[in-house]
Design brief:
With about 130 residues, this protein is mainly beta. The chain contains no helices and 8 strands. It starts with a strand and ends in a 23-residue tail after the last strand. Strands 4, 5, 6, 7 and 8 form a 5-stranded antiparallel β-sheet that branches. The chain has a 3-stranded antiparallel β-sheet with strand order 1-2-3, with no helix packed on it. A hairpin with a 4-residue loop joins strand 2 and strand 3.
Length: about 130
């Protein structure tokens, strides 16, 4: 079948964005290509502050055998989020069907914006990258 859903991020063009060195994302967007509709989720941190989000990825649920087209979005959207007020990072999981938060994982270290879901240990020599 033809892909129905597309997940992306929305640029933040708000106040102060022109002074930033690189574009930042404020929302996760789900596009329904069949109905030509969008659903947007602008997450808040565990502390209740707006966050910057990373590029997101779709993570299918384990029980996805023999799905039909209407179940294509059965899974989660995963991304990193950074609260600039507290300088804390989180890993967020959204229900891909409803675009509502399922999990906020508070991380012990800040994850830089645009990190692309790669984790590199601080003790790894740069020559190994």
């Amino acid at each position: 079948y033809k892909t129905r859903y597309l997940y992306a991020v929305e640029f933040d063009y708000g106040k102060g964005s022109e002074a930033r060195l690189f574009p930042e994302f404020k929302s996760i967007v789900k596009y329904d290509l069949k109905l030509n509709q969008t659903t947007t989720h602008s997450p808040m941190s565990f502390d209740g502050n707006p966050v910057r989000v990373s590029e997101s990825c779709f993570c299918p649920r384990a029980s996805r055998d023999n799905l039909d087209e209407s179940q294509e979005d059965l899974g989660y959207i995963a991304c990193f989020a950074h609260d600039e007020t507290t300088n804390k990072s989180e890993c967020l999981l959204l229900d891909a069907r409803t675009m509502t938060p399922e999990v906020h994982l508070c991380l012990p270290e800040r994850v830089p914006n645009g990190f692309h879901a790669s984790w590199i240990h601080s003790k790894l020599p740069l020559s190994k990258l």
